[in-house]
């Protein structure tokens, strides 16, 4: 369970209020009659914020995910508490948002995990943020402290400004330093108490290993072996994370975008470490889950599968740790955890990029990448080229970026794979055949005219013309000299009308030049991909 860790922008007054509320003692536990009342949530819409401004109430944002176990628990135990529901109804405007349906909000508050609790002013400015599941008593104390600090719901001045654009070149260095700090030397992988299968970090480390970093290769090999504990051995697919550093307590929801990142990392690991890491075997298990349970009728991929059985309705609830410990027959006898059937461009783009990376390693993944690319293009790309997310008017840059990256990666990978399947070609332009005429042209010796046909009484040596005036020295090869003179003499050049019918010697300079130019046309230099 993720304990709430508030990040307040309410100043010293709010911090003191929270401390006093915690020291005053917890209120009495609710009775059975107080249970069962549910908080009523409004939609995230301009009308909701207009109502908050008119009533001068802060907005309580409950940011959740359909697959999130602790979101279900908080909605049942905390927002279902009658005291919480009454306080929220009288003093706040409550809003619930699905983080997958609104990736703009999901990305903004992803660092706070799900469920995320955010207090906003009526104008949308942040007042406070809380992380994870919050029990009812603690939640009441936090809300009372926030109201005591800002009863009018007005946002305080902002803190540190955003970094300038000039700081962006240092982002990669900061990310690499963060990976070094969060590397788990004992258990492998990156992260703290929550240990995810971080495919993007694995891909980064494998690229360092491919460049000769021996330490990066060791980290990558250890991570691939360790994270296999989060791979469902029956149905395939990676669980979201382990609740312990040693990978022994998997939190069993499965997210589609996480599988795409995992495929990317496994492909990079196979390229850097070879088949010894058995990365492609792990990728096959990921694809088995995507193909078997997550493929929509139109060929795109659905969003996620719940951690537990029965949390979205059913005769009983079976926790994920118990359900996923069963074999295939035992699972099917109970059913399958709920699947969020929404399809989003961002998730499909990540998986498509991972499939394309695998196809570059092994051509047997190419048909799956091609099918997903065609399905995603038909489902998400409009006639105007815009990437749509459902039928609404909302457009998100993350959708266009992820899907565009996946489509470009799949197209480029297919071209590179096709080039590798062809017979190998030379690097650079095809070398030209040596020509005696070129050697004669590059010579500094004087040129002599063409020797006339021998006839009875003809002189054995011709008189030099203007082409060789000033020297009576003959060329070393009369045949080469005569061909050179023929090629350059204006009187002997055929007219355009008769050029096609004029036969040329196979070894002549003109025919050799045409063979060379046709064999190596401009702009078609073959290079190794």
Order of strands across the main sheet:
1-5-4-2-3
Radius of gyration: 36 Å
- Give the count of helical stretches: 19
Query: Low-confidence runs (pLDDT<50, min 5 residues)?
Result: 1-36, 156-160, 457-529
Helix fraction, binned, reads: 40-55%
H/E element string? EHHEHHEHEEHHHHEEEHHEHHEHHHHHH
Class derived from helix and strand content: alpha+beta
Largest sheet properties? 5 strands, mixed
What's the overall geometry?
Answer: globular
β content, as a range? 5-15%
Number of strands: 10
Cα-to-Cα separation, first versus last residue = 48 Å
Average pLDDT figure: 75
Give structural notes.
By secondary structure, the chain is α+β, with helices and mostly antiparallel strands. Helices cover 43% and strands 7% of the residues. It contains 19 helices and ten strands. The strands form three sheets. The chain has a five-stranded mixed sheet with strand order 1-5-4-2-3, sandwiched between helices. Strands 8-9-10 form a three-stranded antiparallel sheet. Helix 10 runs parallel beside helix 14. It starts with 6 loop residues before the first strand and ends in a 10-residue tail after the last helix.
